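Example record used in the benchmark description.
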Amino acid sequence: MLPPARFRPPSGSLPSPSDPAVAGRFRRRGAVRGRSARPLALLTAAAAVATALAAAPGTAAADRAGDPGRDAGLRGKLEQLVRTPGGPPGVIAVLQRDGERQVLTAGTAELGTGWPPRPGDRTRLASASKMYTGAVSLQLVEEGRLRLDDTLGRLLPRLPKAWSAVTLRQLLDHTSGLPDYTSDAGFVRLVVEDPRRRFDPRRLLDFVADEPLGFRPGTRYRYSNSDNIAVALIAEAVTGRPYEKLLAELVYRPLDLRETGLPGGYRLPEPYLHGYDVDPPAAPEDVSEALSASGVWASGGIVATPRDFNRFVRGYVGGRLVSGTVREAQFTFRAGGASEPAGPGTNAAGLALFRYTTRCGAVYGHTGNFPGYTQFAAATRDGRRSLTFTISTQTNKTLKPELLAKVRAVQEDYVCALLR
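Model output (structure tokens):
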């Protein structure tokens, strides 16, 4: 493995605790910890919270645990992932067809407790958070407060002049050429020194302000976390309101998202699905609260329950937030553009949205990975069928690629079940 001075995180994520240099620093600071079972009183309290959330108003779909016969094969695929060496301690998939919502799980929400993952457990959405910046900015376009061809030079003149020709459209479909700040040596060094460091999210692009564009805007595809930081800054600039408030006004409220937020620190609200660094033969390490979310902010910091995540992707993909020419632009896809990590089937990039063409048909959504979590959420274009798929360990093209291949195969099986 690479020493800290040369360490580079995989695209679309923060440094992984699986890297010895990073994991060692986490352990010395006590940020990564193996947890034993919580006391009975705490477990009872968590169960009470989960029950209250399950009864929260606005939950229109009827949950079912699944038919034992019909769903045995689907559930078995989740159990295989949990049994895979280096695989996740827990998996939860939520499939919804119109008003019927089906929840399938395997493993545990927290090692040592026996609790299964639950649709009311918070998880880190990682790069799937990029759909939320899309939801905010595209509504501002539809309202006429932004145009897709507006440039950084006009909207954010404080940013480097070399970036001035980059447009909002190019930021949203990752053809901007902006250097990725999460790959900057200075940023990585600060995260390694103090994983729970609280960054000023509005200064994250300063880490790469002295770097030129990687290519002429619009000519190539390259996934970059910097893109969505810039999108959030643009939204703030044209509205005069913090991005967090824009999320509440333009996304949470219209879609009735009551279990979603953008925390600035490392804490997760209870109850949550615990995320783990799994590196056999060592015991899994709980990394749920190992890193501050401030280092990813609008590019990867959203926290939500699978229940809310499902509600969001149905509304976002299904056209509840934007319509007309804006929606047409959103659904214009670029071949060869893949999310990070890649989703099932063949990936193509739209505006803060990816198309996943599987053997059974196409769905639209996003993936994400963060220490302890890997996410996939997608829906049919009409929003009537949706899937969220969460595992409690991180995998991507450079970290556990064999596990990622298995996860993508299972995700495709789930998409096929959704579309049947």
